[in-house]
């Protein structure tokens, strides 16, 4: 990953951790694991409620490599543009999308 763009705002990935193949987009991993210096979190997909009394943190820090886990991908439409070498994430309400497909 070189940067994350939201609208017209581009946030570069820190040079100290910019390695080739440094982030894995993984549906099989629950948590999102990002280098500590790159984790500014939002509540949308940051916490997972286990029950009324237990709330789990869905992110974990790591040294160099990142994994974008399946909890953070929930309710996002993920687009892959292989020509531009980009991945995009669009907020999506999958409960509404699923109903339209049935």
TrEMBL record:
Pfam families: TAXi_C (PF14541)
Organism superkingdom: Eukaryota
Keywords for the protein's UniProt record, in alphabetical order: Hydrolase, Protease
Residue ranges that the Swiss-Prot or TrEMBL entry lists as coiled coil: none
GO cellular component: extracellular region
Statement: the UniProt record of this protein carries the keyword Protease: yes
Protein name: Xylanase inhibitor C-terminal domain-containing protein
